[in-house]
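step: validate -> pass
step: tokenize input -> pass
step: predict -> running
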Amino acid sequence: MKATPSDQLQILDVQRMDFHVATLKNKAAVLPEIAELLSTTTRLQVVRDLCVAAQTQISDIKRELSRSEGDVEQVVTRLERDEKRLNDGSTAAKDLERLQHEVATLAARRAELEEVELEIMMRIDSVKERLEELRGEETVLVAQAAEIESRKDGALAIINADIATTSAERLATVQGIDGALVDLYEKIRSNGGNGAAALRGGTCEGCHLPVNSVEIGRIKTAPSDEVVRCEECRCILVRGVN
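step: predict -> pass
step: emit ->
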């Protein structure tokens, strides 16, 4: 295949531009902000799930408190009734001892139930306090996520602008190169690796392997417009590169 030395040098420029774009895309894919944002949003989701769980827990404890308050109310009602009977003197002497015992029992039961009620209220307060802490963390995480997203978008904007500029330069360069050489270059690149590389100091800069002496001798005697290929990686070897 034939191609002018100028076209061969330009196809090497295209290779450099393609490598630059690939490097930029890889940089975009591994921006530290991406991992940072993932970590932050993951924690944010965990915190939001914990908030829901805490709210559910509060609702459950409140139902428990309501039952406890009902139990206390029943005991208080019976206790007040019995105390009234004791105080109004209408109780027969034979029932007085039994009634006094019942009042003492009810009073003890009331104290027990009120202790349980207090413990339930303290549990509610504890979960509410935890919920407030989680909501505070959620607010902080939302702000952090927004800040990281902004930094990520800014970094990507710079990278994408560089890609766009390089891509436009590539297009302009390709339009000035013989189509057959461009097609060969694209075909080689489609198989992975470099489509073109400089031959410098007897080494292919595509695969970084030395070209054997016999092939070097053939290349040196080949016309300058002959397109030569690396025997190892098969990329286009471009001669005359400073």
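step: describe -> Helices lie at 5-29, 32-87, 93-174, 179-190, 213-221.
step: cleanup -> pass
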